[in-house]
Amino acid sequence: MKKIILSIIMLSAGMVAMAQHAPGTVTLQPKVGLNISSMTDADDADPRFGVAAGAELEYQVNSFFSISGGALYSMQGLKGSDDVDVTMKLDYINVPIMANFYVVKGLALKAGIQPGFNVNSKLSASENKVSGSVDMGDITKTVDFSIPMGISYEYKNFVVEGRYNLGVTKVFKDKELNIGGESIDLSGTDTKNSVFQFTLGYKFEL
Question: By the number of CB atoms within 10 A of the CB, which of 121, 138, 160, 162 ranks highest?
Fold first, then answer.
């Protein structure tokens, strides 16, 4: 019986150390990183590389679980793969709300929901030193929803994280885009955002 009790105590002591911060702790994490973004139904396109930067607050509920929320400026979109250099620039302020599960010390699996608010929507193109851009604000939805899923590792308050943001709402409204007098019908288009995100952050206890 003593051995069983001792084993339970030792197991509990080891489990308490899952998270880097004590239960009840609130931390602020500024972070910056890289987006590799594309869209569904865009098999012939290349990804757009952009910046992700912002901050997140995290509340440590217990040694295994925490909740976090934040705001990140996220450069998304895609690039054309034709001879003409075409870039679709879709920039958002994303608000990830995450559940974080610490499986070993410092290592967390996470998932949540993420509304995003479009702040820039342009289509840029250049060919033979001639360039131009088209504002796509009228055809881009103001609010975008996605499901962020990822994994992070914290060491001495530094946090390395990888996430995948799976879009669940259509990027564009059912309208026509006019480019150089030509119309592109977007009705019926089911294009959604698809973003891989890698960041480095640092946690400050508040």
Answer: 121
Residues 6+ apart with CB under 8 A from 133: 122, 123, 124, 125
Task: Say if residues 35 and 53 touch (Cβ distance below 8 Å).
Answer: no
Residue type, 21: H
Predicted confidence (pLDDT) at residue 40 exceeds the cutoff of 90: no
pLDDT tens column, 89-101: 999 999 999 999 9
Around Cβ 16, how many Cβ atoms within 10 Å? 14
* Max Cα-Cα span within the chain: 83
Q: How far is CA 160 from CA 11, 108, 151, 202, in A?
A: 27, 11, 9, 9
Residue 177 neighbours by CB under 8 Å, 6+ apart: 123, 134, 136, 139, 183, 184, 186
